[in-house]
């Protein structure tokens, strides 16, 4: 009797889809069963992997990722009100790539290549999103990639601003009022079409309202009076 593997082999040969069989202990790209161009499924003790005949994907995955992110990726920096933090604001840089669920194999491939981040559902537009938020991962893995393989569209300008912000945060400038002001100015120049909960003027006003007083010779005593922002 013809096995399921043999039936798939015969079917795909008739469709001229390039394929290869690798041992089942091979690491999967994703826990989900995917569709073409890359499909992984456990059949008869083997991992059957279909590979789309895309030279760019097969020869230079790094350039493929940069090209893909140029169209579907986003570099963003958001701010949240946190009264318990020293400057009253939390700065959150993020790199993300969105795609429909039926094409999610590309997101898992990028996640595997970078070795960091997570994939989640975005209910606002019914897509899946690969996202990296860790500052160390952003600097060491994501930013380093796009420095070596730069974007070709105007999105490169957003990336350069994003990189500058992450490097400032690595120096803990976001924990100082003047440093946070500098970061805010850069962030609000990114993605001009995006929506934000707080305006730049409201955030700047809250920082200008902070009163810092020094006391003692051994260090700083810091007291803040915050503007009301809801």
Stretches with pLDDT under 50, minimum 5 residues? 15-53, 211-230
Helicity, in percent?
Answer: 25-40%
Count of discrete structural domains: 2
Assigned CATH class of the largest domain: Alpha Beta
CATH topology of the largest domain: Endonuclease I-creI
State the shape: elongated
Please describe what this structure looks like.
By secondary structure, the chain is of the alpha+beta class. It folds into 2 domains: 4-53, no CATH class; 61-193, Roll (Endonuclease I-creI), CATH 3.10.28. The chain has helices at residues 4-15, 55-59, 61-72, 105-114, 135-148, 155-170, 177-187, 200-208; strands at 19-23, 38-43, 46-51, 73-81, 89-99, 118-122, 127-132. Strand 2 (38-43) and strand 3 (46-51) form a beta hairpin. Helix 7 packs antiparallel against helix 8 (200-208). The radius of gyration is 23 Å and the shape is elongated. 20% of the residues are buried.
């Amino acid at each position: 009797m013809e096995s399921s593997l043999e039936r798939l082999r015969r079917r795909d040969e008739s469709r001229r889809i390039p394929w290869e069989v690798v041992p089942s202990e091979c690491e999967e790209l994703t826990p989900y069963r995917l569709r073409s161009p890359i499909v992984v499924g456990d059949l008869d003790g083997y991992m059957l992997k279909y590979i789309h005949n895309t030279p760019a994907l097969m020869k230079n995955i790094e350039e493929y990722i940069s090209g893909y992110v140029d169209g579907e990726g986003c570099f963003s920096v958001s701010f949240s009100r946190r009264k318990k933090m020293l400057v009253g604001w939390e700065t959150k840089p993020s790199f993300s790539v969105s795609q429909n669920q039926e094409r999610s194999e590309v997101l898992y491939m990028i996640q595997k290549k970078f070795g960091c981040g997570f994939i989640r559902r975005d209910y606002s537009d019914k897509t899946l999103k690969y996202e990296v938020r860790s500052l160390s991962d952003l600097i060491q893995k994501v930013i380093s990639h796009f420095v070596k393989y730069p974007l070709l569209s105007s999105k490169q300008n957003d990336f350069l601003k994003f990189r500058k912000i992450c490097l400032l945060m690595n120096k803990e400038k976001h924990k100082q009022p003047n440093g946070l002001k500098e970061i805010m100015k850069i962030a609000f120049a990114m993605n001009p079409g995006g929506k934000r909960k707080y305006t730049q003027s409201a955030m700047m006003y809250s920082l200008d309202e902070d009163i810092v007083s020094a006391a003692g010779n051994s260090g700083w005593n810091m007291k803040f009076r915050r503007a009301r922002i809801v």
